[in-house]
Structure formats: C-alpha cells, structure tokens
Amino acid sequence: MVRERGEAEAASIMEGFARQMREIAEASRKRTLLTASATSGRVTVTVNADCIVIATKFASDIADVGYDEIAKAVTIAAQQASADMRRQTEELLRPLSDKRAKMPKLSELFEGMPDLESQAPIPQPASLAPPQAKERLAQKAEPAPEFSDAVDYEDWHSTRGNSGPTSSGW
C-alpha cells in the first residue's frame, strides 16, 4: 500500500514536471515572436525579443535635422523599445513565475539545505550612459566584489575524503 502511494506520488510529480516543461516551451516559443517599437522624434526603432534592433525607420523629413539629433533619437527609441520588450516578456512569463513562487523551495523539502535563492546575487541593470560618459567610467573604477568564504576546489576536494556518489557508502 505504501509503495503504491509512493509510486502514485512519483507519477504525479513527473506529470507536473512534464506539464511545466510544456508550459515553459510554449512561453519560450511565444516570446520569440514578440517585437516592440518606439518612436523618438522622426525615428522609429523595432526590437526583437532579445532587444536586438531589427528595423529602423526615418520620417520623410529626416533630412531637416542634424546627425546629432538623429543619433540621439535612434538611441532613445531603441532604449524605449527595449524597455517595452522587457515589460512584454515579464507579462508573458508572469504566470510561470507565479506558479514557481507557490512551489516549495529545496530548503523547505530537505532539512539542512540552505535557501540558495536568497544567496543569489541580484543582477544590476546595465548603464544607459554612452561609452565614455563619466557614469560608465566611474563604474569601471569600482572594485569587483570579493568573497571571503570561497574555497579553492582542489582544497575542498582533498578534505572531503571518499564521500561522493561513487563511494562504497552509497
């Protein structure tokens, strides 16, 4: 009886996993079809789901403005289109994120397992400043983060002994 219940639970978990993989694949397919466009001044820029510019259009009177104004308009339109793409992508993936948030964490399932998600670094947004702007140059001068508790793999491995999955204790 216990074994049958365990097998049923395992089958249920596997079906849930397969369903989740199908949902992720479908969301990924839909994401690849997304585009976003933005207009600044006399310029319209369109980006794909990876925020790569796929089209740039100028108004018929673009010759009436200088190159600096055109360049600024292209940059602004591309940034706005990319921001819209990020919003669309978040909206598309929100149902998956909501489901994931309701699932138990590994640390909740296995006693003593650390909450790895809480330890993950939070990605910082990239600067929108031009290449030689003071803001960008100041960021380059900042030191890289240091980790005081990092252990060299060779040192760690030599102190573990024979406790891996191939040891006789398994």
Quick recap:
The chain is mostly helical and about 170 residues long. Helix content is about 55%, strand content about 10%. A 3-stranded antiparallel β-sheet has the order 1-2-3.
How would you describe this structure to a colleague?
By secondary structure, the protein is mainly α. The chain has a domain at 10-108: Ybab, Chain: A. Helix content is 54%, strand content 11%. It has six helices and three strands; from the N terminus they run αβββααααα. Strands 1-2-3 form a three-stranded antiparallel sheet. Strand 1 and strand 2 form a beta hairpin. It starts with a helix and ends in a 10-residue tail after the last helix. 5% of the residues are buried.
Q: Give the C-alpha Rg.
A: 25 Å
CATH homologous superfamily of the domain at 10-108, by name?
Nucleoid-associated protein YbaB-like domain
Total number of strands: 3
> What oligomeric state do these chains adopt?
single chain
What is the annotated CATH architecture of the domain at 10-108? Answer: 2-Layer Sandwich
Between the first and last Cα atoms, what is the distance in angstroms? 27 Å
Low-confidence runs: none
